[in-house]
Amino acid sequence: MALDTLIFDLDDTLYPPSTGVWDAIGDRINQFLRDNLKLKPNEVVQVRDELFHTYGTTLRGLQIVYGIDPYKYLNYVHNIPLESYLQPNPALRRILKQISTRKVIFTNSDQNHALRVIAQLGLDGIFERIIDVLDVSPHCKPQPEAFQKALNLLGNLDPARCILIDDSLRNINTACELGFHTILVGNHNGNASAASVRVDTLEDLPLVADLPFLEGIWRPD
Questions:
Q1: Is 179 exposed, middle or buried (CB count within 10 Å of its CB: 0-12, 13-18, 19+)?
Q2: Is the bond preceding residue 159 a cis peptide, omega within 30 degrees?
Q3: pTM
Q4: All domains of the chain, ordered by start, with CATH?
């Protein structure tokens, strides 16, 4: 069955965790919790973990439990100097341009952050569309409802004709249950057996190009 779409996660997928981007965002999340929930420093990690594991993202938990404005949260936590962490990646751009199949972003961040990351990496014009956390509200990855809404927004796609490329085992597991092909990005200590294949970074995608479910997506230079 021919593939329709490659669906890419954003943070820690288009770039490796070693860049420090997510650590910087995490610091902003912690500060947001301290300022808006009036938490003591030693309470922040526990509350954040509870929200994340119970609701899928800290944001969704903040909306449901505390009535936090998602725009206020997203604008605050993503307000970091990306140029201090990310540089253009011409090698990745060449690899992604060789993939003839439609490519989109599906992220639990917002559109503005996604556009900034894409621009900083030099990947403008690669992705046809960005589906962000506000597009699939009130759901988020890894909830199956979020995936279904994303598929609907992309033209009622058949998940069997899509590949999810993501660094999160939770997201990969949901996608597999829904019938996606999946590529897990990064080093993981957990059980990654659900993923169709694993790569260390997106630059390693050519190493798995001969797998049957990837047949026909590569366009030679």
A1: exposed
A2: no
A3: 0.95
A4: 5-16+87-214 (3.40.50.1000), 21-77 (1.10.150.450)
Q: Provide the pLDDT for residue 68.
A: 96
pLDDT per position as a tens digit, 45-57: 999 999 999 999 9
